[in-house]
């Protein structure tokens, strides 16, 4: 209800302040919904049915990552941007009605006392300073202030020289993390409500599964930041068309629902996770290998579909592994915690892989322009100056500046043919940056695959699969003896 109401609020916003507040409310509502759905699945289904339910849940999450932007873009382009928010009103009502009719209540026992608002506030500071520090480090400077950067909050402006805001932000993250742990432990000892029961991390499947989920999330969704930019700015597709290309990923994710259901009962959840991550790794490496400026989106489409299958399998079954040993009364906190870990992993992945994209793009463009054959008659210092003039705006704009290169250069007296050569070199440089991002994503997925070997094979997983077979075998033996 909060998310639906906030969506309507955003759709009727008339200024930026109102929109920002509405989006914050949307975030609060969405953060309440996602772990709750997982808790409902965990509480409602058992055995093989739980594996199938997790497969459907994970495939839906993975598929909607691609479908959502396409739907929102279509509504904003062909109707009005407000409908990108207002569409959530009828959808929200349908979901609420479905919950009232079909969902089973799974409320857990609560301790007496107030909600841990202090812990919640500390966690907001903790995660926001971490994500801000990693995402904005390139813009404001990792240690000293970048020339021309202007960090400000209201009337407060960060000094233009000296230490950057980034190390301060990361220091606040470290301090708030320590404070959060101490605060949660003190409340737990006092038998008060906590935001996160730290004792959950004493459960090996939850602890190791959460670590694996965080690492895998860094590689899973970071590349999805770069692909649409490459499709639009290098391949020349519109925003809607690039979104439609990503539907190959959605198709693969939905296909994984059927595959995951078929594998449930035949393969342990841990091995299903490994297969899913391996498919993602192959797909991401394939995208990095085949992508080229002269190529087309058709070259990466099959790999996007394979990518979707991997996401669908890994997301669903890893969730089951994380939750398998968690007591039912702790399912809500565990669901929220693993969801937060994945969101943080995705944010960190976008931050790290975004940095790889921008730095690799800028370096490659400079190298390619300096070595352009059509510029061989120009002296080296002038070529270097031209390369830097082109490379930084293209990297900073994530490729959007590519289109304006010929007109800019011809206005400076550069011959048209040379101007287009420079644009092509810059486009090749951006493609190099996207490929480097793909290889970096593959590296994180490889680390994630390695981390799954700490999960082992869960006894509960095997029991839920083999018990029905054991019963059937016993009945068959009894029947034989009777005859």
TrEMBL record:
It is found in: Membrane. InterPro entries: MFS (IPR011701), MFS_dom (IPR020846), MFS_trans_sf (IPR036259). Pfam families: MFS_1. Coiled coil: none annotated. GO terms for cellular component: membrane. Its main location: membrane. The chain crosses the membrane at residues 20-41, 53-77, 83-103, 115-135, 163-183, 209-231, 237-263, 275-294, 300-324, 344-365, 436-456. Keywords: Membrane, Transmembrane, Transmembrane helix, Transport. Residues 1-391 form the Major facilitator superfamily (MFS) profile domain. GO terms for molecular function: transmembrane transporter activity. Gene3D superfamilies: MFS general substrate transporter like domains, Multidrug resistance protein D. PROSITE patterns: MFS. The keyword DNA repair does not apply. It is a multi-pass membrane protein. This is Unannotated protein. It comes from freshwater metagenome.
